[in-house]
Amino acid sequence: MNTIKTEYLEERFNELLSAQPESKLKSWQKEGFQTFTKVGLPTLKNEEWKYTGISRLFTRDFSIPSKGTESISREIVEKAAMPGASAMNHLVFLNGKLNLELSTFKKSDDFEICTLEEAYNGRYKDDVEAYFNKSSLVTKDGIHALNVSFMNDSVFIKVNKGHEVSMPVYFNHIFDATHNHLLASPRSLVIVEEAAKVEIIESYYTHGSMDSFSNEVVEIIAKENCQIEAYKIQNDTPNGNHVGTTHIRQIGKCLVNTVTISLNGGMIRNNTDIIMEKDANEAHMYGLYFLKGHTHVDNHTLVDNTKPLCFSNELYKGIIDDYATGVFSGKIIVRPDAQKINAYQSNKNILLSPTGTINTKPQLEIYADDVKCSHGCTVGRLDEEALYYLRARGINKDLAKSMLLKAFADDIVMHIKIEAVKEYVESLIAERLQLHD
Amino acid sequence: MLSIKNIHASIEGKEILKGLSLDVKAGEVHAIMGPNGSGKSTLASVLAGREEYEVTEGTIDFGGKELLELSPEERAKEGLFLAFQYPVEIPGVSTTNFIKAALNEKRKYQGLEPLDAASFLKLLKEKAALLELDKSLLSRSLNEGFSGGEKKRNEIFQMAVLDPKLTILDETDSGLDIDALRIVAKGVNTLRNESHAIIVITHYQRLLNYLQPDFVHVLMNGRIVKSGGKELALELEEKGYDFIKEEMQESLTA
Questions:
Q1: Residue of chain A with shortest Cα separation from B51
Q2: CB–CB of A407 and B50 under 8 A?
Q3: Domain segments of chain A: what residues?
Q4: Please, what is the Cα angle at A426 between A422 and A430, to 5 degrees?
Q5: How confident is the model over A289-340, as pLDDT tens digits?
Q6: Is the ipTM of this complex over 0.85?
Q7: Number of Cβ pairs < 8 A linking chain A and chain B
Q8: CB 3.0 to 4.6 Å from B127: which of A176, A237, A293, B160, for a disulfide?
Q9: What residues of B are in contact with residue A414 (Cβ under 8 Å)?
Q10: What is the tens place of the pLDDT at every residue in A249-278?
């Protein structure tokens, strides 16, 4: 019952590929599956997966979405969508695949939206060839390889030079696990051209009572003078599992901000990679994991300073209740030529229950000598002095705790620049804390 | 209003208060003085309900209720207010939101509706002016980055908004310059009335010059060893605590 099974994946892979014509995408998939066969699923012995036993998910028989279009009711789309979606470029991905019928977005000359296959077979062949699947050079584990193998051709987005996408681009991921356990592999490529500006938000929703596992990779190419906000809001059901790699390459001098909010779900792993490939790049990464039940959230971040004068600031905060687990691993690499960089990292955690777990690990690899790097992590309980002070003013213990936790979380939430998203996250947190105003 | 009878209290197994008794009536101002380590701050903590202190003996009646059976928040809602010696900095919680929560919790306890926004802001403005508190402090995180004087004025400001029956000032004068001391004293005096009792815990005469207490008590070794009028504070300032120690020696040998 509890054995890990992967043999059947080969059969599914062959089925999936035989239905596709030969193409460049197909050869990437083949390469991916070769890697997967070679390295297998990561185990706890793999340093990068030490605290997240992802292979446990494979005790189930997953069904793998076929090529064709599937459908789901609009009612479910509405339920999955975050409030304010109607004022966004709302892209609905069902089981990893873009569903144009259910999506609503404003066509404009600001940006192009199509599938990867369309992009490759059309005007964007060079872009796809130049930028697709570079993440596999950095992340070489079996989970990433599995995404490439089974990738759902999610979306190709190109934000045109000098254009600002006025409405946020919202990836509403819906997974239909009504009848079977589902393994979906969303795969997207976003190219943000010179001096362009875009905001991307992703959310995840599992429909049905079977288990879903979304194994996602989003590659973002950030060119000179562009500005990108990339947010993930995770508030799925306990049967919704997720590994998501957001691989951002700053190939021109530009600004990238990421915010990752994790509130509910099963086993979740977020890899957020920033590869700084030009002088004086800037990135800010924020994360909040506020967990209860048995939810497991692992945030792995990477800032790779390959050039001088880069700046990065990273703040991740965790609140762990019940039997939940939080993992933070923050890697900063400073390459030999990357002099005069500033890289800051901080991870702060509050444990609310004796049965909760936190694992936090900063990793600095510095090969240059003139750099400023700092890192720090704390794990503690709620500040007893502060709690007493509030109670001594007549504020009930539960309300006092909630006020302190809200203040702790606000430190991250305040960095969400899209008002509707910020209000949504605030309302979820207020609900969790039973705060009413 | 407050009747403390034979209180023994200890922290981490060490007895600090050793049979302290004190009666405070509505409208009275009592000063408690005493050398370092005599138990002054312990008394404040025991009254406010700090959980680290264990009361092993004695009773405290507060307006007809057994104070020791109430949680810190219940005590506050019953009308007890402790002005902290070291007000805590709370990042991310604004002073305004904090006071609003405290006031509304108290009103709920009293069976009243929450104060509407306009009345609340008016109250806040009025009391901030009384304490000469810069309005920008109200929107900032509670006590975070406040100067020593600002923190203490903020305590008295909170007292003014919450309108307690019994206030305990725990060394509110420590770390204050002359101007801040004058403002704090003015604030306290304005809120002095026949239904509000005040216990002033202090090392020094200077705050008492402004507050003019009705009674002065000397706390030593966990008990009140001498009580008198405001002239006792002057005598202590002049002679130190040694003369009381000598008196105690004499009464022991007599």
A1: A388
A2: no
A3: 6-278, 386-437
A4: 175
A5: 999 999 999 999 999 999 999 999 999 999 999 999 999 999 999 999 999 9
A6: yes
A7: 71
A8: B160
A9: none
A10: 999 999 999 999 999 999 999 999 999 999
